[in-house]
Amino acid sequence: MFLSAGVAFEANVEALNLVETTGNYSRHRKIPYIWRDQETKEFRVIYVPAISGESLAHAYQELLVEEATRIYGGEEKVPVCPDCKTGEFFKSMNKAHLRGKFEGDPSKTSPDNIEKEIIKKCLVEDIGGFLYAEKPPIKRSSSFQFSYAVPVKTTALLSTVEPQLHARHARMIEVKKKSQKEDESTEGEVQNKERKAEEQMLYYVEAGTAIYGFVFNLDLEAIGKSSYDGKPVINDEEIKKRKNVAISAFARLVSSRQFGAKLSRFFPAGDIVSLYVAVTSSPFSVTSPIYETAALTTAKRLNVISNIFKEEVRFYLYESLRSVEDLKKFGFVKISETPEEAILHLLEGEKK
Questions:
Q1: 169 has which bridge partners?
Q2: Which long-range contacts does 329-333 make (Cβ < 8 Å, 24+ apart)?
Q3: CB count, 10 Å around CB of 73?
């Protein structure tokens, strides 16, 4: 089975993806973006705030660990390597990080056997892939994909980035000995003045505001299987558990919105405005939610696939910005009133 989802969310005053700090100024990620003028029909490039797929993928992999701990019933039972458990996704990139997952000399072992041992020992590397950069080189592609989160077309010109001024205060206490010599005292006064200047630090953080949309794809059939011969590496029950973990982690990502940077003081004001998930037998990507009629277009595409290839398809939908009347004519569409309800229908449907 293949799962593809489109998510659109409103985020006001967010700092989810900062790219660099110069002095006391932190910049938000911006990207070139194609926009079409509806009056002149001309295309032009504008620069808009964005959130990288790497940022979303990192949060998803952290949630893989959390959901695995819950589903497996305890941290001791979870097949996750020590690095991934702490959110350090080095994966099996070299001998040092391969240790504990493969015993023996990698250079004298076939790549497929090394991959099998890693799959058994680490659920995150099974689902998220890895690249072993020593001999023999081994690449396991990730079974999930994230696009960048970028502004939707209808509001792209309204998306903005604006620096916000903040001040950080620190109380500094100098304790001096009365017996200090005069020259030492003078030196201490200079240092004291320098420290007092540091007591209040002004800094700027660029905050973005936009309605973002991104696509998430998950190849459930790749989980627990060798990328060399396609055969299962673990038993069917374990594969079923890992598939459940992969879907649940995505559900948690959407519901909690625990992705991106600076959530402790810049948690975005907003909510999920659109969520739709297609489940198919073969690989299929939903139409990006940056387009106004993305859900309807996706449903039409699924209908064609269902008729031509006689393939079973399912489509779970939550939509708050526009009418869903045109989608009700498709028998495979399940419409929900909240994002969580759509996720619940997805989880229940894929457990069968």
A1: 200
A2: 330/299, 330/302, 330/303, 332/302, 332/303, 332/306, 333/299
A3: 9
Note down the domain range covering 229.
2-7+52-148+208-351
Helix (H) or strand (E) holding 241: helix 236-256
Q: What is the pLDDT along the chain (352 residues), one digit of tens a residue?
A: 999 999 999 999 999 999 989 989 999 999 999 999 888 999 999 999 999 999 999 999 999 999 999 999 877 789 999 999 988 999 988 888 888 888 888 888 899 999 999 999 999 999 999 999 888 999 999 999 999 999 999 999 999 999 999 988 766 554 444 445 445 555 555 555 555 555 678 999 999 999 999 999 999 999 999 999 999 999 999 999 999 999 999 999 999 999 999 999 999 999 999 999 999 999 999 999 999 999 999 999 999 999 999 999 999 999 998 889 999 999 999 999 999 999 999 888 766 5
> What is the total count of domains within the chain?
1
Residue 240 lies in a domain: yes
19 domain residue, yes or no = no
Residue 33 placed within a domain: no
- pTM here is 0.88
Peptide bond into 136 cis (omega under 30): yes
Residue 220 · residue 105 · CB < 8 Å: no
- Asked if residue 107 is part of any domain, the answer here is yes
Residue 288, CA atoms < 13 Å, CB-side half-sphere: 13
Classify burial at 80, counting beta carbons within 10 Å of its beta carbon; exposed 0-12, middle 13-18, buried 19 or more. buried
